[in-house]
Amino acid sequence: MVDTMPMTGTATDVVLRAKDCDMYYGSLKAVRDVSIDIPKNKITAFIGPSGCGKSTVLRCFNRLNDLIESFRLKGQMTYHGQDLYASDVDPVEVRRRIGILFQKPNPFPKSIYDNIAYGPRISGFKGDMDELVETSLRRAVLWDEVKDKLPESGFSLSGGQQQRLCIARTIAVQPEVLLMDEPCSALDPISTLKIEELMKELVQNYTIIIVTHNMEQATRVADYTGFYNAQVVEGAGGKVGYLAEFGETQKIFNDPTLEETKDYVTGRFG
Amino acid sequence: MGFALFILLLLVAIGLLILTQAWPAMQEFGLSFLWTSSWNPVEGRESFGVLPIIYGTLVSAAIALLIAVPLGLGTALFLSENFIPLKIRTVLVFMVELLAAIPSVVYGLWGIFVLIPALRWFFDLFGIFFTGPSMLAASLVLSIMILPIITAISRDSLAALPPELRQGSYGLGATRWGTIFRVLVPAAISGIVGGVMLALGRAMGETMAVTMLIGNANTISLSLLDPSNTIASLLANQFAEARGIQVAALMYAAFVLVILTLIVNILADWIVRKLQAKY
Amino acid sequence: MTTISGVPGDSSDTFDIQSLKAKRSRSRNLFNIIMTGLSGLSILIALVPLVLVLFYVFINGVNRLDLDLFTQLPPPPGSAGGGIANAIVGTLIVVAIAAAISVPIGVLCAIWLSEFGGGDTSIDEYVRFGVNILAGVPSIIAGVFIYGIMVRPGRPGYSALAGGVALAVLMLPTIVRTADEALKIVPQEIRWAALAVGASNYQTILKVVLPAAIPSILTGVTLAIARAAGETAPLIFTALFSPFRFNGVTNPIATLSVLVYNFATLPFQPQQELAWAASLVLVLMVLLTSIIARVVTRQKTY
């Protein structure tokens, strides 16, 4: 299906907007025709089978794909109406506004304290660092577990704690948006539930986009859900991903418009 | 089983042989060998002390490191980041490796006939008299020779870092060099320091180029423009013609060199191992 | 759950949209540009000597690169003409002796390390540590060691053989390391597959694992030989030098590297020219083997 109109939720404020976005790795088109509005202070989930471009789209929102030499974006992405890819926009500034969390917890080989303080320090934070570290850790519901071992290495924590450390690290630079790229796929079920609770807590202050393979997770946490699918490209020998359907999570899972969405959410493929 | 232990036996054999051959000199001169300065092989009036030579060994290696560490690290960072297309980077990596492939004696020849005349011309501009063979000439060529070691090992340890570290830092809004200085280099520091230590060991033991350029003068001079000597070049110069107690004295000097490089190399090995344990 | 209000991050309503612009961070960008420039400059400075050395070796060596160079003996000091035939042959002989000793021992040692070592990791560790230490032994010490064993008064004396053994000591750690790594790369599944069809441990290693690793081992051996060909320090008081043609492995022998060393310090221009020509031959040998070894490695089995 081809739909160039932005698929819009019913939310009031739009934080991020993609319009007619095609994404390429070298000459290979990986994602086509993505148009989506991300509503403010809501959790938006991206679901879909592997290789359909969910993560690629996610990483475009904070220009992390700039790190891949061959990557190219065609189309427009805006943040509060401002073109993210305009020539006078500093990607470094973008990433401070739009934080990201990865699949595998990736603490720096530094102390717990320095992991949190890293972002604020590089942004030239002048305030009370101890307070900011504590606040960030409290928000990530990690404070009680680590308050006595702040000088220890971030690696000394369990996987779930490491991921919450990364969340604390991200919110310490005071972003407005949190991008989460399968943040729970490397974690056990209990840690996963903790992160999910945390997300519901955080969404009061942040706009969250989460890529997940776990459909129950999407139904548990997301206000809106976008279903991505991929189709084989004739002759090119590859697949190109696209945003098939986007709407309120309830609707996507209970009453999807498209047959392919229905097949996916009911577990018939993918 | 036997073949693996062969390596260890060989190491022990090297140590033991040098020690037993040095023994007469150790008995004769004791530890004062290390802090006396005369080197007189004339029969009947022999006296041997290696203080100026140890000084020359350490100072030439230190100056070489002083030049090679920033250049080598800068090169490693440039080659581990994506400033230029991968294909050109591969060629540049190969060229830096070639620096290590050129034989030491060729650097020596080049030093005598190209570098020293160039330095002489340069110092002439300021009216400074430059003899030629000197600590400066030897250290400059040494720095060229150890730079590829520092670059290769630093680049390897930077490349061994998980890509998530870099992404994590960029994701927090760090700039490229902010990420390099605050995350990547600290995370790879044990590998980088290990590489520097290996380069130091190599610089202390490097023989031919140094022998041809340092002037082989057993004196301590604070001026880098004066000739000096290193243990390795002392051995290279005198072994073939040495007799009697002089051979033992040279073996004693060789023993000192072995101990110095052993300490540096064991430290390097230990530091590099620490890195591997972390990731 | 704890929620804290009034902390940074709540103020997103008053978010300043202009702050995405690059102009706010000019000093930061300047710092990045300067650092990028410095690191690019350091690689340029690092490569200047390479270009200069290769350039001077070529222009000073090429005018003596004639047939005589490869067929004639060095002339007496001060006379012109002649060649470095004996040194070229000598380098090949000494390196061949070194390879004949170090390659079998090194490869067997590596096989033991990667195939049998698993049983006792502490010995394994010691041997790998020993290999690293041996690799760090200065090349002149290898010469001192062999001098003490084979050359010093009362022993056989200066010989091609002593030179070859000294080089073998230097080559050994390189060969063990590269062979060890080459064997490690062979996938474990290959070993299991061979064992599963009833091959013994030795058959598996000899018929399956070793053949698979041979291309990489050859690369390592070639690089080690290339480096050994340029070594001088271990030869000056083991192989010594000879102005004559090859005269058996128990006699002193001329080599290219020692010839460069000896002739570079003579005050006669013909000898200096020969030193440059010998350097050119040496550099070409080392560079060609390095490049060939690298091209061969590209065609990996695994």
UniProtKB/TrEMBL annotation, chain C:
State where the protein is found. Answer: Cell membrane
State the Gene Ontology BP annotations. Answer: phosphate ion transmembrane transport
> What InterPro entries does the record point to?
MetI-like, MetI-like_sf, Phosphate_PstA, Phosphate_transprt_permease
- Is Transmembrane found in the keyword set? yes
In this chain the ABC transmembrane type-1 domain maps to 88-293
Q: Which CDD domains match?
A: TM_PBP2
Gene3D superfamilies the record matches: MetI-like
Q: Which UniProt keywords apply?
A: Cell membrane, Membrane, Phosphate transport, Transmembrane, Transmembrane helix, Transport
What membrane topology is annotated for this entry?
Answer: Multi-pass membrane protein
A GO cellular component annotation here is:
plasma membrane
Which residues, if any, are the signal sequence?
none
TM region(s), chain numbering: 30-59, 84-114, 126-150, 156-176, 249-268, 274-296
Question: Which coarse location class applies to the principal site listed for this UniProt protein?
Answer: membrane
Q: Name the Gene Ontology molecular function terms of this record.
A: phosphate transmembrane transporter activity
* A UniProt-annotated Pfam family: BPD_transp_1
Q: Which family does it belong to?
A: Belongs to the binding-protein-dependent transport system permease family. CysTW subfamily.
Mind telling me what this protein is named? Phosphate transport system permease protein PstA
- What organism does the UniProt record list as the source? Shackletoniella antarctica
Lineage at the top is: Bacteria, Bacillati, Cyanobacteriota, Cyanophyceae, Oculatellales
